[in-house]
Amino acid sequence: MKTMSNIRVGISIGDINGIGGEIILKAFEDSRMLEFCTPVIFASNKVIAFQKKHFGLEVNYNGVQEASQAVEGKVNIVNISKNAPKIEFGKETEEAGKYAFLSLKMAVEALKKDEVDVLVTAPINKHNIQSEEFNFPGHTDYLAKELNGEALMFMVTEELKVGLLTDHIAVKDVSKAITRNLVLKKAGKIHDSLVRDFRIRKPRIALLGINPHSGDNGVIGKEDDTVLRPVVKELFEKGIMTFGPYSADSFFGSDGYKKFDAVLAAYHDQGLIPFKTLSFGRGVNYTAGLDKVRTSPDHGTAYEIAGKGVADYQSFKEAVFTALQIYRNREEYEELTSNPLKKAPANNK
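The chain above was modelled as a monomer; its predicted structure follows.
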């Protein structure tokens, strides 16, 4: 098992006109971070030097040509391009989109080759990154294509974990997309992740309703009664403790979520609005269900404050620590489950 300091954290730079470079460098300006991991940033010496000077940060770094050359105890920069792109803080440019994809592509390749152990992605602009190679609504779908497994967007903090039945689809398509099989699959993925990635032995999952008041016995829609309630029963029979559906409007305000290890929301805003309200600045976007670990901060490029030196790096830092912890939890889980005579040191929830 690796020590913490030599776990290699691959980091994609994101949109260089946003706050990605700033939050990355701010996080690793604290040299104590190098006691926990070896960062490998996919950018270029010129881009990092510009950002470091612009923000007046004291970060020593080591330039390498490929991730396999990364040195433990240093901030490593993999030069992804000989030509440094023009940085225009706060602007959406085609050049920045191309550079963000190049960084992501090379970071994922290194992850697949085990040259880095986990991946932390800085925010991208979902519009300017689009190309023939990247025709996806976001990181999660791209990673689902490149890595093994079935991706699940899982927003996590220590106290609150929210998964989504549907993510980047239009609201008008939500009810049609939610089927028995989808609920079974997503609830199963969350259950497996809670056990393997978060060491929760007997997880409890809350399922939120699709319609207001979970349909009010069919008065405001029948999907909760015809789809969700039968699946909850079926999940219980499979040993996956899922409860609900609960009315979403009062679930979070009444602290109902504190009784569960995770919440499964019907659609994007139903889950992410309360999550970000309760956890903003500490939340982490984790892509569960894949053979590799990927996390990111819970915010976007923040063009409106880019270049001003005021970006909060706490969520990025949490993303790094969450990736490290999940990586270690998976190592322990694999070791313990490969030897059934050992008992797992899991939470007795």
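The radius of gyration is 21 Å.
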